[in-house]
Structure formats: C-alpha cells, structure tokens
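Batch 3, record 17
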Amino acid sequence: MTGVKRIAILGSTGSIGTTALRVIARQRERFRVTALTAFSNAAGLAAQVSEWAPAFVGIVSSNGSAPPASWRRGEGTLVEAAVRDDVDIVLNAVVGAAGLDATLAALEAGKRVALANKETLVVAGALVQAACARGGGEIVPVDSEHSAILQCLGSRRPEGVRRLILTASGGPFRTWSPGEIAGAQLAEALRHPTWTMGRKVSVDSATLANKALEVIEAHFLFGLPYDRIEVVVHPQSVVHSMVEFIDGSVLAQLGVPSMELPVLYALTHPERVADEGVPRFDPVSASPLTFEAVRLDAFPALRLGLEAARAGGAAPAVFNAANEQAVALFLAGDLAFADIPARIDEALQRHGAMPAHDKAALLAADAAARSLVRRRGL
Ligand SMILES: NC(=O)c1ccc[n+]([C@@H]2O[C@H](COP(=O)([O-])OP(=O)(O)OC[C@H]3O[C@@H](n4cnc5c(N)ncnc54)[C@H](OP(=O)(O)O)[C@@H]3O)[C@@H](O)[C@H]2O)c1
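Prediction for the assembled complex:
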C-alpha cells in the first residue's frame, strides 16, 4: 500500500465504528483518522476525538447538551465528512437508510466507501451504482459475507461464477418453533449466538431480515440475478460465504467470527497487511462445521425481503423502511416480535409498487412505509 490513507468514520461510536478504531490503532503507520461522526453519543465521540484528533467532528443530534463549538452539527455532517479533500476512504458505519446520502456523495466525489451500511444498497442500489460510475468512487463491502465473496472472487471474471452462497448463523431462534419465535422477548432477540453487534442489526439477525438485506446487497455489489444468490444456515459463523464457479468448484473464505478482519480488508483491498490482533483460526477448535437449509416458514421477514428483492422498484426500499420502523418500535417495547414481519407485509402490500424512478420517489416510498408501520404500531 502506498502512502498514508486518510479515513472518515461515519458512525464512529457504534459497534463497527469502534471495531474500526481498534483495527486502525494497530495500523497507525498506514491510516490517519481525519473525520468522525456520531448520532447523539457526545461523550463517546469526545473520548475518540481526544485520542485521534480528527480535523472534522460531526454530531447529528446534540440531545440538549451543547457540544464543543468546533464540532459540526446536524444531518448534513455525514455528507460534509464524506466529501472532504483530506479523506481518501469513507467507512460508512451508520445504521439505517440515514447513511444513503453520505454513500452517494462519497462515491460522486471519487472516494472509496468501505460500506457497512448495507441499507444504502437496499434503498437505492441502482442510484449507488450510477454514483460510482459518475464519480469514479468504489464500494468495498464490510459485511463479513460480502467481504468473503469479494475475497473468493479475486480478479476472476463474473462470467465464470455460477452462484453465490451466503451463510447465515440462523440467529438466536434457529432451532425454535414458529410459535416460540412469535413470542420472543427483546432480551432473547438481542442475544446473538456468534456476533456482538448493534441493537438494530441484532434484531435483524433474529428475524433473518438481515439476510434479505444482504442478498439485495450482494445483487448490487456483484451483479448476479437473485436466482443465483442463495442462503444457507451455518451456525458456527466460520465459513463467511462461498462462491460456486461454472466448473463446479466452490471457494469459501473462513475465519473466526470477528468483524476486525472484514473491516481491515475493506480498508486495504486488494492488498493484505499483517495484523497480529485479528484472532487466529484453528480448524480443530472450529470443528465441526455444519450447514442447514434455511426455514423460510419460521422466518417470514426473510421470505418477504426475498420477495421484495425480486419485485424490485420501490419494494426493497419499502421492505427496509418498514423493517427499520418496526424494529425501532420493538426495541422501544411497543411492538411484539411477531408483528415485525406482519408490519413489513402490510407496508409492502400497500406501498411496494410505489414509483421508484429517482431518489425523491424512493424516499417517498420509504416515508410512506415508516408512517404506515408507526400508525399501525400504536
Ligand atoms: N455490528 C456488526 O457487527 C455489523 C456487521 C455487519 C454489518 N453491520 C452493519 O453496519 C451498520 C452499523 O451497525 P452497528 O452494529 O455498528 O450499529 P450501531 O452499533 O447501532 O452504531 C451505529 C452508529 O451510527 C450512528 N447513527 C445511528 N443513527 C444515525 C443517524 N440517523 N444518523 C447518523 N448517525 C447515526 C450511531 O451514533 P450514536 O452512537 O451517537 O447513536 C453509531 O455511531 C449497519 O448497517 C449494520 O447492519 C454491522
């Protein structure tokens, strides 16, 4: 790798954001942190600022308390950070569709976007591709499944690929009956068996909505039709995903379940750098590795997301928005677990076919879905 790369971390106080800072702390000769943003966690952000002394600090909502005068405030801070001249790589670790504008702006400005914020591609995958083409930016995925696929593909031509196989841990309710899942409590949904993550993505992993978001993400990242992207349950989360080629050969990428490697790889791709902090893999202690068919009947959010993916247009944006709103209500204790897919279903039926020709149309579909779920959730 040539030269020090300058990084903006959007969502630096979250699970991926703090993981990234841990990784970068071991690679200080390669990377410099020039911008950090958070939503409202001013104390967490202040601690990071004192360690990293970034040129730019942004906070979306100051929550009543006054942040330091040198910090930028408001929703626009994400885009401001993303397009700065002193930024080479934008790590988008924001949760939800709120990350969309910053992804688009960074790509238009020709930056590398290390993308954890999968919702960006689900809401507006075609717009993101167009922004890449116009601005000369590139997306490198942070999601472990997509990082695995990128690593398996290497420089091979897409014509040589038969299918992508995304692995799913199955979440905390992998072995539960549909009836038991319907009555799941918040603490149970947040107790993920193999990953420690933010609350929204943890609930998405319990409903398996997360895997639908990832299938859509893979479609836009790697350009394969949906009938060539499959999901298999792999409870150990050691095989991060697989690529089958047209001659029948299958390549997989393996490692212990830790986001440190995919975050590091998104910053260094296509190169690899030594990092003694990434946990080492031991095949014997990782054994046995098992695989199961996914139970679409028990996880209706995944089925709905896959249907929305195939429907295209505004349906993926509606799926995402309804899911975000329903999960927010569930996290607040205002919605039952079983009502998450029920609300998504209603939103898709009502608004899934809304116009989707540009960003304004997609955001209108997003807003309609959120509003429907909010009203029905009360
Ligand atoms: N966690 C994982 O292991 C993992 C793995 C793969 C993919 N991902 C994806 O990575 C993204 C981040 O996940 P996470 O688990 O790191 O989430 P998280 O822990 O909830 O962190 C989210 C970060 O974004 C900020 N944020 C939240 N809402 C925002 C808004 N409306 N505008 C601007 N900033 C906002 C938060 O700031 P405050 O702290 O101030 O609230 C925080 O810094 C998600 O798309 C998720 O699906 C996560």
